[in-house]
Amino acid sequence: MKDIKKLNEKDRDYPYCTEKVKTAGIPQEWVREAIEWPAQVVPGYGGRKVAHRKYMIEDKEYLLRVVFEEKEGYYSVVSGYLTSQVRRYWKEEKSENRI
Hints:
Blueprint: E1 2-5, H1 19-23, H2 28-36, E2 40-43, E3 49-57, E4 60-71, E5 74-83, H3 86-89
Antiparallel strand pairs: 1-5, 2-3, 3-4, 4-5
């Protein structure tokens, strides 16, 4: 697992992402954006969290899913991948005004 420091720390020295993320060709900047400015965070397995960000690649929508753990003072990136199955993973907010 690789570590990404939390935003409130002054030094934002982001280490390289996991091998899976690098092998998939996902830019480190995208992983950083997903952690710092997620469009959505959903629960993962074993207390982990999954940060979501959508990207358009060649006119097709993809979802970047970054699996991470919150440690004391930093985030630890476990894995990350792009998927075209946005509807499968994207969690719509439930309206409390529904009857």
